[in-house]
Amino acid sequence: MDVALLFALVIGLMLIGVPIAVSLGLSSILFLLAFSDTSLASIAQSFYQAMAGHYTLLAIPFFILASSFMSTGGVAKRIIRFSIACVGHLRGGLAIAGVFACMLFAALSGSSPATVVAIGSIVIAAMRQAGYTKDFAAGVIANAGTLGILIPPSIVMVVYASATDVSVGRMFLAGVIPGIMAGVMLMITIYIMAGIKGMPKGEWHGWGEIWAAFKDAFWGLMLIVIIMVGIYGIPGITGAIFTPTEAAAVASVYAFLVAVFVYRDMGPLATPEGERNHTLLEKPWALVTALVHPDTKKTLFEAGKLTITLMFIIANALILKHVLTDEQIPQQIASAMLAAGLGPVMFLVIVNVILLIGGQFMEPSGLLVIVAPLVFPIAIELGIDPIHLGIIMVVNMEIGMITPPVGLNLFVTSGVAGMPMMRVVKAALPFLAVLFVFLILVTYVPWISTFLPTALMGPEIITN
Amino acid sequence: MSGQTYKPRSGLARAINTLEETLIALILGLMTLVTFINVVLRYGFNSSFIWGLEVTLILFAWLVILGVSYCVKITAHLGVDAITNMMPAGPRRTVALISAAVCIVYGLLLFKGAWDYWAPFAALQPTEGRWFPMGFTEGVRDRAFYTTDQVPMLGIFRWLEEAINYGDTYDKLPRVIPYAVLPFGTALLLYRFIQAGIGVLNGSRASLIVSHEAEDAVEDVAAMNRGD
Amino acid sequence: ACEDGEIVVKFAHVTNTDRHPKGIAASLLQERVNDEMNGTMCMEVYPNSTLYNDDQVLEAMLQGDVQLAAPSLSKFETFTKVFRIFDLPFMFKNIDAVDAFQASDTGEAMKDSMTRRGLQGLEFWHNGMKQFSANKPLIEPTDAAGLKFRVQPSDVLVAQMEALDASPQPMAFSEVYGALQQGVVDGQENTWSNIYGQKFFEVQDGTTETNHGVLDYLVVTSVDWLDSLDPEVRDQFLTILQEVTAERNAAVGQVDMEARQAILDTGAVIRELTPEQRQAWVDAMKPVWEQFEGDVGADNIAAAQEINASM
Ligand code: NA
Ligand code: NA
Known about the structure:
heterotrimer, A: mainly alpha, 21 helices, B: mainly alpha, two-stranded antiparallel ribbon, 2 strands, binds sodium ion, cell inner membrane (chain A), transmembrane helix (chain A), cell membrane (chain A), transmembrane transporter activity (chain A)
């Protein structure tokens, strides 16, 4: 009963326009003060420890930073050129290329909105020019952008791993097959729609253009290799070099180097559009000035700002989680659900429904922080693979990102495309249906999620 | 995503704004560098700064706790505006005021909690009272001796040994230093919430959350993505 | 859930409830307190770091937000450096020597050594002796040279690895399995039950039975809370805790050996050392003692050695 009150308060505050983080935090504080003996100081402790005590979450600022360098540093536009060279000549080719570019960028970036911004800002305009409707372009990108959290690296997976103590490396591997599947399903859908509606197709520029575009995008695409080889090693040749968290930091440094010294679209070697960029030989002091260049500072600052707003929500969700744990709510819910004689199938349906509803109101990472500890013990009890559960949650979060009122990808797409949010919602609907089918598939075919991590890292061990 | 555009008006406001932005960039840059250098040290030189992990985590906490107030100032925090956007101007202003009041209450409670948590580490007294500070307690044992796990002691803080640690030397940085960000950051947060509340009251701002429908915000994001 | 009027004891720890020695002991304590002190006292256990990890739990205890915890002994080094004696390599011959030392006046005094800072040590709980594992055979101490070992963040353990010319690496416990498997770090040190429970043996070349250190816990409470209890209630509680401690500590050797056997049963390699080989490890690591003699006290070291000699 008390708990129902707590959640009602959270949602009520959110609906009147209180920031999500404050809605979560204040409700938790009031609940704690009213119903327990625990001190207010413990709230401050939770707040601080949300960052300082969660090594895994440290990957979030780093992946955000890497992705910022990638988008401001011109990696996105090179990836798009490569994608168009590959599939642009098909019917609906530019849209298919947009999905393909989102998939590639998703493999560099940990976030969905970042993927939409990086790819959408270029592709939507290009699609309009090529004769697609603005709505179709926005719908495609809003959906394909959600692959940002399914294809590794992924901030939402990092949050799930942190909340449940499963390995981040495993979660990342588990996202590979579902990510490719979802991307391919979207592409097929577009191809069919394009055939029916007679959408435009681009020109085939030949293998030469593919090769040239690939060479140009190579340094950006290398980041995928660095992340994957760095985390998993190459069997028989080298062990891994860093943990997933460190991989994110290394990716940031690499992205910085590529953006400033290789592509030179930002930093001391950049020149106005149309002019030849400086070379390092002309300005060797750039090696030092790059670190303090306004472009570098601005990218760090923008990434920092995004980290702060996201972590403020996560930290307050962790405060809510702390208060729920303190009151032993997860155990009560778990025993109630188990006493009801729930089977795995019914349980997964309930999880899907909770997340789909929650996803309407909440930012995905914050929602995961709260829901994962509630359902995780039950899932283990029912013999559901924790990695499989994680992927189900991630796919639910994807859907949450393109459904109102809180749909991060909707916000961003409406900004990028310059159209009202409700119009983006309508535009995204047909593809949303594809994601729903995909969710059902992922929920009931565990193999899709567990095959790769099990094959490469052995079966999941549950140590708790 | 971007907030309502914030433009500092006075010279001081500009200086503070630059300071905040620089600090955010600097802390994130430092976190990245420390982590990266430790990877290089481990893989290339088979060594590491044993304090690297802990320092990075402290910087992470500082980044967020110092940064939240700045994000209130520039209205960058996420919220749900679907309902409030359907309201006519009058009621919309009323709920904006209510939500500002809610934020101020949150800021007050969080600040009290932060003080109560930090004070014993600084050999100060936490406040009396469960909901509201009713003066300071007496006789709470201090935790000034409590050091971090691995962060080296810095010379500039040696004076703390005499000031709060009964003259005992610190062999590691005491926790009072990293935790100081809590009372400082939450006080700043409270101040920014109050400022935002006043802003809603005198009509200079519409709400405390990022607006997604407002024309200027859309334009702002679109401009950002064009790269200017 | 607890009833009104009962004294609530929150016990936060970081392991599971049914397989780890600490978790088993905590569950038994909970069962007995809730059974025998029903109506007076009620214990709630928060396992798996769900409420606090070992680092945060002591702060929370001083704040009055949790009443009982059992962190590993190295967590108390901040309170008093004497506790570093348990991290010193080859300080104790075996778990019986550890037990005898903890039961001696020195050990008893250690429980009371933090009262001015607000903590009261109650009972020592055993996990067991630590072993080294790595991604290559460790026979001679020189085999560890150049390898990266994950250790707990403690000055003594860092010095211990440096004495072997190995590189100590700080790392969150939850990352260790993946890091060992993927080769981010080469080795680690832990007790049999942890090596088995965390499945570290699966991703290592083998484990060398060095018994070079001890991993134990101190059940601890806040002085203020303990003082607030009625004498009878407190005595009954402490007696139950004492009995649970005796029962579980006596069984821990068996838990340890079962874990060791279970590792062997999977086909994993365990390397035993000849007395000469073991001596080489002792010679390599013992210089660490001098480094920390000032912290732990020469007399305490002497007391520990006396106990070793009597075993
Ligand atoms: Na991704
Ligand atoms: Na949503």
